[in-house]
Amino acid sequence: MDALTRTIKAALLYEDGRTLDSVVVVPLIGGCPPGEIRVATTFAGALAYDVYELADEEEYSSMPAYPYRSTIPVTTEDLDD
Fold first, then answer.
1. Tell me: the pLDDT tens digits for 31-61?
2. The organism sits in which domain of life (predicted)?
């Protein structure tokens, strides 16, 4: 944890829940890591989000693990007018 910026590195895991996909820096919220992380990606050529969910909210190390949960496509219907 970075005491000055209140951020922490988080490990994003592939669908198998064990293999490291990437590492991202996320803010601590109330001293805890967020329960979910969304990362922009593409799905069938359109904007989408990969969703990663915190593996264990109660106890986390200096780098909490976030296994992949799903991909959410974003369509033009989702955009504000």
1. 888 999 999 998 888 899 999 999 875 555 6
2. Bacteria
12 contact partners, CB below 8 Å, separation of at least 6: 20, 21, 22, 23, 24, 37, 39, 52, 66, 68
How many whole angstroms separate alpha carbon 77 and alpha carbon 74? 8
What is the value of pTM for the model shown?
Answer: 0.78
Query: Which string of DSSP letters, residue by residue, matches 53-78?
Result: E-S-SS---SS-EEEEEEEEE--GGG
Rounded CA-CA distance 42/33 in Å is 25
Centre a 10 Å sphere on the Cβ of residue 78 and count the other Cβ atoms it contains. Answer: 9
Is 60 exceeded by the pLDDT of residue 3? no
Number of CB atoms found within 10 A of residue 44's CB? 6
